[in-house]
Amino acid sequence: MRNLSLLILTFLALNVNAQITITQDDMPSADSIYFVTNAGLFNDYDFSETGFEYTWDYSDLEPVAQQARNFIPVSEAPFSYQFLFNNPFDQEHLADHAIQTDGFQVGEFSLDNFYEFYQLDEDAYTIVGFGATINSIPIPGVNDPVDNVYELPLEYADFYESYSEWEVEVPTLGAYKLEQSRDVDVDGWGTLITPYGEFEVIKVRMEINANDSLYIDFIQQDFTFERNSVEYHWLAKEEGIPVMRVIENLGLVSQILYKDLEEEEEEPDNVDELLLAQMDFYPNPTTGGLYISNLPAGASVTIYSLDGKVLVQGIQFGFVDLSNFSNGFYLVEVQTDNAVRCERINLVK
Description:
Blueprint: H1 2-18, E1 32-39, E2 52-57, E3 63-72, H2 82-85, E4 97-101, E5 104-106, E6 109-120, E7 124-134, E8 137-151, E9 159-170, E10 174-194, E11 197-216, E12 221-236, E13 244-249, E14 252-260, H3 271-277, E15 280-282, E16 289-293, E17 300-305, E18 310-315, E19 319-321, E20 328-335, E21 340-347
Parallel strand pairs: 2-10
Antiparallel strand pairs: 1-3, 1-14, 3-4, 4-6, 5-6, 6-7, 7-8, 9-10, 10-11, 11-12, 12-13, 13-14, 15-16, 16-19, 17-18, 17-20, 20-21
């Protein structure tokens, strides 16, 4: 009987030790650069699968593109944001670092040079606000209440909810407000395998429900857009950012990212390839309007369904209207005389 009790205690101790706990030491810090790879979306994975002492093997994900995540000190962000996010008299919104992300378009509002400001302590990793150039005007927005991305320490079976909102006014145009909730469940732990490596992880499921409210001054009318998504984050010790992150919209995977080593850049074979590489497609997902920045002169844009059917062709300017199509994924092809680029776009109306 004594031997059996010792065996049970040993087994329980081994399993407790196998489960990891994520703390503030495992979050990003200023002056850190991480590289993430976008993986191809065409696969048979069910990313909702989870469990206790589970193995997620995604080692055969196909890399598509890579991007850098540069976490900078708040003091290096534009000066116009310093008063709100580098102010010791406002501890709730005093940020530890910031990251510049892709801008996006909402109706008449173009948000460029977008900065998110983060606060990190032993209790939580939060987004305290943002700064963006909105229609050429630098404007900050404060999350009130702040957006708790991760409550810390974080471990298997934890559950929490977070609500945040912000509102900005743009002179001569109107106002834009975001209300967002996160329902977060740490629903698994075990081993994650990606093309980058093998990690002991916890798996975090986030259900994110957002409402964008847009008020246009000159027509004195409100517009509301609802965005619902599910995100899966796999977190490991001392990795800074999720070693893998998946985003689903309307039950369809719209983005797969995994932490990776920096890849060596290859020189484009011709000038057209270089020009196409500089394009951005936003917003994605979109509610109907899709903007293509840096579209080369003379390039032709064609819209395809996922089964290869041509829906629209011959577009030669940087805006595509998808509002007449049904919700789902579409391929946008940009072609010049010597190069072609395809982008997968998610339409969510």
